[in-house]
From TrEMBL, chains A, B:
InterPro entries: IsoCit/isopropylmalate_DH_CS (IPR019818), IsoPropMal-DH-like_dom (IPR024084), Isopropylmalate_DH (IPR004429). This is 3-isopropylmalate dehydrogenase. It comes from Haloferula rosea. Substrate binds at R98, R108, R137, D226. Homodimer.
């Protein structure tokens, strides 16, 4: 039977408890679809700091290197908030993981199911059928990693600077990911930049327009980032796929996630290059929401984002598309059947209000 | 009697028609409060391009230099959209005006009146009393003007870059503006940055924390920009004053404006230094919305943003606070009396649906 290796990094806050449930779902599809996974659990984030002082220990990197893909929970919490930024759980684990594994393509679905529009902050009449946007964020370039970055004294005062920088090839490869995704969906792509101000955005727009020639069926539109931030709150259902650079993607994908109504429902994938001779990617899969320390340990967190992260792992890194689909279908069914964790419940009599484990049971 | 000089730059799209109405309101407060204005009209944006090829002619700069403040309409439209970015109406007029006059402090109120929550995309139950946020955006620094900015060939491919850079003194002066504004309002300030990634944001956060010591009554909170983009859509009424750097301010103030429900209601001020020996600023005042070419010339645009821009001009640059207050009160009264332009109408029988001129009549 087929065997895959995965690294399991549960992390902090609700990470461990939603991870436990998602691994039960993975067990279930393994026996149903006839494959197995070797799982290597490793410390990350605050848990790793508490253990050995570093949010991303070498042993964790090794476990990831030996895997076909990383299943990640979430990191961070008040306990580590006052450490210097570089050594904090989020920053100190996520950025080095992205860079080390070249995870340049961040796919973040922003889905508001028609039955869950009440959970969105947006008026129901603006999103009568919910919406389904895919945000493709460039994840290893731009102002996050550009150099020079730092500070110095100039004319007797401190000056601090960052460099927003893109190479043509970096823009090309993320645009190909976005156009390919659009081909498999509604064939409409919005590329977001600030080409009226930024030189890096002018290049971004040029390259997007060029790459578009390879995908004549996809309709490409360019939006300025300020305009995109506006349209996302008023007309989220007008988007199909949205592609943008690292910093804009950070802001817009979070805005989109909040607008979708439940962060607890949204998985994400951070993909590197394709594996040699295959259509599969090395990637890292994690919920879009954070570690939610306020509700950790109470058994009430929504496990769906983590469970759908397993589905993305199966599809993009393990080549188990049928198992992925089965998970996605089961999640949709559980929602249809009325199962609701607190974050998506309205209190209506037709709902079955459940905790983390019961939601996973329903999906199973 | 007191005389002030103002430059009037109506611009494109709905600019001229809302400007006409706002000047009628200015006439009214002049006779009521016993002062006069000398108005120097000048071309800007597309209108200036059509006239002489440049969006910001020297004659316009001179008119502004000779004034106590600039009343600005709006610029841009499809006709000039395909010019190179540098020479387009928005970019080619706004950025040079900001730089030339050192307009470093952009004040953008984001107000959703309790009677107009229906116009906001956010669910009424999330904003039962509407909201009133003031966004303070740094306007002459950061990645907009930082150098180096451009492109070059490296290792055989094109690379494009921008520099996000802040001096301590630039951060200090905008923070003082924001803290002062907070002192005159709810005494709560949220400073938005990305200090977990950007060196310029680390300095920003340090300086904000230091400047806070001068304003012990103001409660300062720091938010990361991705989090701020989320909170603005879910809890806009949790903010009092928000301060941030240029690019984040561009994105967040537009998001906030959209969330407030009517761009047609929101004025803005871009302030430079205080005039010598006075508490007044040289500044430029303009609606937050754009030139709205789709409804230009139809007499249906909401003139309130332009009229409230006159009020800000009176308060911050001309020292006519009573006249400013009279205008703001009259606008509130017109809304209370049920006058509604199309952008804020619901169709309810109690409303008086009006056009641009009738709204100004109601305010007058
Ligand atoms: C923690 C932080 C460095 C990170 C980012 O900005 O990329 C986070 O906000 C995210 O989006 O994954
Ligand atoms: C037109 C553009 C250069 C400008 C900006 O980005 O500042 C505009 O979006 C604004 O906010 O006034």
């Amino acid at each position: 039977s087929r065997t895959h290796r995965i690294a399991v990094l549960a992390g902090d806050g609700i990470g461990p408890e939603v991870m436990t449930e998602s691994l039960r779902v993975l067990d279930a599809v393994e026996s149903k679809f006839g494959f197995t996974t070797e799982r290597s659990e490793a410390l990350v984030g605050g848990a790793a700091i508490d253990d050995g002082g570093h949010p991303l220990p070498d042993a964790t990197i090794s476990a990831c290197e030996a895997s076909d893909g990383i299943l990640f929970g979430s990191v961070g919490g008040p306990k580590w908030e006052n450490l210097p930024p570089d050594t904090q759980p989020e920053r100190g684990a996520l950025l080095p993981l992205r860079k080390h594994f070249g995870l340049f393509a961040n796919l973040r679905p922003g889905v508001c199911l028609p039955s869950l529009t009440h959970a969105s902050p947006v008026k129901n009449e603006l999103i009568p059928n919910g919406f389904d946007v895919l945000c493709v964020r460039e994840l290893t370039g731009g102002v996050y990693f550009g150099s020079p970055k730092g500070r110095e004294e100039r004319d007797g005062e401190t000056v601090a600077f960052d460099t927003m920088i893109y190479k043509r090839s970096e823009i090309e490869r993320i645009l190909h990911v976005a156009f390919t995704a659009a081909m498999g969906r509604g064939k409409r792509l919005v590329s977001v930049d600030k080409a009226n101000v930024l030189a890096s955005s002018v290049l971004w727009r040029e390259v997007a327009t060029e790459v578009a020639k390879d995908y004549p069926e996809v309709e490409l539109e360019h939006l300025y980032v300020d305009n995109a931030a506006m349209q996302l709150c008023r007309r989220p259902d007008s988007f199909d796929v949205l592609v943008t650079e690292n910093l804009f993607g950070d802001i817009l994908s979070d805005e989109m996630a909040m607008i979708s109504g439940s962060l607890g429902m949204l998985p994400s994938a951070s993909l590197g290059s394709k594996k040699e001779g295959s259509d599969l990617y090395f990637g890292m899969y994690e919920p879009s929401g954070g570690s939610a320390p306020d509700i950790a340990g109470q058994g009430i967190a929504n496990p769906i984002a983590q469970i759908l992260s397993v589905a993305m792992l199966l599809r993009f890194s393990l080549g188990e598309a049928d198992a992925a689909q089965a998970i996605e279908d089961a999640v949709a069914k559980a929602i249809d059947d009325g199962y609701r964790t607190g974050d998506i419940a309205t209190g209506a009599a037709s709902e079955k209000k459940v905790g983390t484990k019961e939601m996973a049971d329903a999906i199973l």
